[in-house]
TrEMBL record:
The keyword Iron does not apply. Belongs to the DapA family. The lineage of its organism: Bacteria, Pseudomonadati, Pseudomonadota, Alphaproteobacteria, Hyphomicrobiales. This is 4-hydroxy-tetrahydrodipicolinate synthase. GO terms for molecular function: 4-hydroxy-tetrahydrodipicolinate synthase activity. The keyword Lyase applies. InterPro entries: Aldolase_TIM, DapA-like. GO terms for cellular component: cytosol. Pyruvate binds at M217.
Length: 311
């Protein structure tokens, strides 16, 4: 069985999409292909039911179905983190207990948008720790979505007071200084050193690694880029990591568009044979003819650039 999530986690915990059929049902066959694809790409773990996994569009039964299928396909070969954010602690705990019982390694919790003060944020995550018991969890810091600003000092307090908070999903923007501040705090002994994996589609991954991040917890239609960047950094080949990242950056930038980005990701994953359909569950955008032309042009340019640098 996969070891539970802990502070030493590193590498790429890819945010998995949720495949749907053309008529909007959960596509089990595509889940299997997707899991195989991510594993073959070399990721270190998977995160399911994230914001870009269309989790809010799933029923409770579908959420469990997706998690159970991913876990069944992996058979413990990679750790799986499950997003369990909910309006209340009771449904959060219910889903967390279910997925941990099925074999998940840990869960991820996004703060509710109603939190405004440092004490409210700290109090919320203390309550999360109490509600989840021994379950290790990821603090998802995504102010672009939640409008909840979590200062480094507040994260220090949470990490000191809630021992089951083992990872920060860093998705602040701009947020490089926050990574540096947290690493300085752990170096000085003011808090435990926790894992920091970063989001935002990997747009700042090399810079985040330079500041002390342990890897990425995000999605991109070419997860092998993120895996390559993390492995090159671990090997001390920082310039090579930056060159590899730069080859994929135009497509990563295009994929990071608010609203349209997930449609781009699913289009490319379907084109790569991972998904049977590029369908987003309603409400969700569809790519126009002009959008598709943009993506195809970016894919062709990316292929040429990768050949030029021998990647």
């Amino acid at each position: 069985m996969t070891v539970g999530l802990n502070e030493r986690a590193k590498g790429v915990y890819v945010i998995a999409v949720t495949p749907f059929t053309d008529t909007g049902e959960v596509d089990i066959a595509s889940i299997d292909r997707m899991v195989d694809f991510y594993e073959e790409a070399g990721v270190d773990g998977l995160t399911v039911l994230g914001q870009l996994g269309e989790a809010p569009k799933l029923t409770a039964a579908e959420s469990r179905q997706v998690v159970e299928r991913v876990l069944e396909r992996l058979q413990g070969r990679l750790p799986v983190v499950v997003g369990v954010s909910a309006p209340g602690l009771a449904p959060m705990r219910e889903l967390a207990d279910a997925v941990m019982g099925a074999g998940a390694a840990g869960v991820m919790v996004l703060p509710p948008w109603t939190l405004r003060t440092d004490d409210q944020i700290h109090g919320f995550y203390r309550s999360v720790g109490e509600a989840l018991g021994d379950t290790p969890f990821v603090l998802q810091d995504y102010p672009l979505t939640t409008n909840v600003q979590i200062a480094p000092g507040v994260i220090e307090r949470i990490v000191r007071d809630v021992p089951t908070c083992v990872m920060l999903k860093h998705e602040d923007w701009p947020g490089l200084a926050k990574i540096g501040a947290l690493r300085a705090a752990s170096d000085a002994g003011r808090m435990r050193r926790i894992s920091i994996l970063c989001g935002n589609g990997g747009l700042f991954l090399p810079e985040e690694m330079e500041r002390g991040a342990d890897g990425a917890m995000t999605g991109f239609c070419f997860p092998e880029m993120m895996v390559g960047v993390c492995r090159l950094f671990e090997a001390g080949e920082r310039e090579a990591a930056h060159r590899l990242f730069a080859a994929y950056l135009p497509l990563a930038r295009y994929e990071q568009q608010q609203g349209l980005g997930l449609a781009v990701r699913k289009y490319v994953l379907a084109k790569r044979g991972v998904l049977g359909s590029a369908k987003l569950r309603a409400p969700g955008p569809a790519l126009s003819t002009a959008d598709v032309a943009d993506v195809e042009r970016l894919l062709a340019a990316q292929e040429r650039r990768l050949a030029e640098i021998g990647a």
